[in-house]
Amino acid sequence: MLRLIFSTVAVLTLATGLMAKEPKEITAAKKEYDQTKAKDPEGEREHYANALAKIVAKYTQEFRDTGSREHGEEMQAILAELKKYPAPKDADSKKLSALMTGEWHSTRHEFLYKKNGTYVMLPEDKESPRGKWHIEGNQFSQTEGDVDAHYTIVLLNADYFVYGDKDAEFIMLKAKGKK
After folding, report:
1. How many structural domains does the chain have?
2. Is 88 among the domain residues?
3. What is the pLDDT of residues 44-77, one digit of tens each?
4. Which residue range(s) make up the domain with 78?
5. CB-count exposure of residue 172 (10 Å: 0-12, 13-18, 19+)
6. Does the residue 27 lie in any domain?
7. What is the mean pLDDT of the chain?
8. First CA to last CA across the chain, in angstroms?
9. 21 or 71: whose pLDDT is higher?
10. What distance in Å separates the CA atoms of residue 111 and residue 14, rounded to the nearest whole number?
11. What are phi and psi of 139, to 5 degrees?
12. 166 close to 76: Cβ distance less than 8 angstroms
């Protein structure tokens, strides 16, 4: 019985600690989203996702500039929150594909996505990883060699590309001046 009590207290303490770590940025953005989502659910989903992506972009740029992982936990928490709000399954594939073309930066690499459905890691040379990409609705697929990866798009606009699968979430930032 004593073991059960200690186990219960440990679980509650852990759960409370995890909930307490939700970044204040999520709480503020979620509150605004909850108050306005009934008026325009998709518009507000996109607004909420954009607000969160902007925070993650700040942390991503900080990592790229300094190598600091100071906000790693907050970044992962926000990306996990974003995953709950995927783009609609019937999203406009042509519009999203047009937004996808151009130069994008992840936390570690830079990529060029071309209109012809190919991409290359930058700087481009004969050794650079390259492959094909495709968007259908809210699904993004990317192939490099014989590896085919499929992701669900959360947000794709002129600034941010947020996507993920069952295991992880990712963000890329559109290169400045190359929209």
Report:
1. 1
2. yes
3. 899 999 999 999 998 888 888 888 888 888 888 9
4. 2-174
5. buried
6. yes
7. 83
8. 62
9. 71
10. 39
11. -105, 130
12. no
How far is Cα 163 from Cα 156, in angstroms, rounded to an integer? 8
**Of how many residues is the chain composed?**
179
At residue 47, what is the residue type? Answer: H
| Residue from 67, 20, 74, 21 nearest 52 by CA | 74
Residue 179 belongs to some domain of the structure: no
| The pair of three-digit structure tokens given for residue 158, joined into one six-digit string | 């002129």
Residue 158 has pLDDT above 70, yes or no: yes
Please give the single-letter amino acid code of residue 177. Answer: G
Query: Which tokens go with 87?
Result: 């783009």
Contact at 8 Å (CB) between 165 and 150?
yes
Cα(122)–Cα(130) distance, integer angstroms: 9
Find out whether the peptide bond into 86 is cis, omega within 30 degrees of 0.
no
Q: How confident is the model at residue 145, as a pLDDT?
A: 83
